[in-house]
Amino acid sequence: MVKRHDIIVRVVARLLLTPSVVVAAALIVKEYAEVGDGFSAGMIVSLTVALQYVALGTPTVEEVLPLLRLSPALVIGGALLALASAFFPLALGKPPFSHLPEPSDHVTTVGTLELFTPLAFDIAIFSLVVGVMTMMLHQFASPDEKETEKERTG
């Protein structure tokens, strides 16, 4: 196990976690005014998680961020939400990826956030990117013990 001694990197990594998630959320919800960016938001969160792995080490990160264990569920949920938001319009006789509700129709809101299919699709892309990237980071950070043992003996 590698011991992390650089206190500055550890402090910066912890300090950047919350602002990065806030920026990612802002990128997704800006969609009510213009097209959001689920992929960029997902990459921002993924890079922040990668910084956590580098600065703090795998055991500490997985202790501090227990939600990382839900990465496979995040991938599955994101894929299902993407498919649902893409093909839900088919059930209403519209082409896939149609903007629902249509611009002239009433839009359901939560506060000032308008809920419609492009927002659902951006959330799905965000979930897919974060889920896949955190699963990859976990695999890179903690390789399979059997393979590591074979490399040592073999």
Automatic annotation (TrEMBL):
Domain of life: Bacteria
Main location: membrane
Membrane-spanning intervals of the chain: 7-29, 41-61, 73-92, 115-137
Membrane topology summary: Multi-pass membrane protein
GO cellular component: plasma membrane
Pfam families, sorted: MnhB
Domain Na+/H+ antiporter MnhB subunit-related protein: 8-134
Keyword annotations: Cell membrane, Membrane, Transmembrane, Transmembrane helix
Subcellular localization, as worded in the UniProt entry: Cell membrane
PANTHER family xref list: NA(+)/H(+) ANTIPORTER SUBUNIT B, NA(+)_H(+) ANTIPORTER SUBUNIT B
Annotated family: Belongs to the CPA3 antiporters (TC 2.A.63) subunit B family.
Protein name according to UniProt: MnhB-like protein, subunit of Na+/H+ antiporter
Species annotation: Saccharomonospora viridis (strain ATCC 15386 / DSM 43017 / JCM 3036 / CCUG 5913 / NBRC 12207 / NCIMB 9602 / P101)
Organism lineage: Bacteria, Bacillati, Actinomycetota, Actinomycetes, Pseudonocardiales
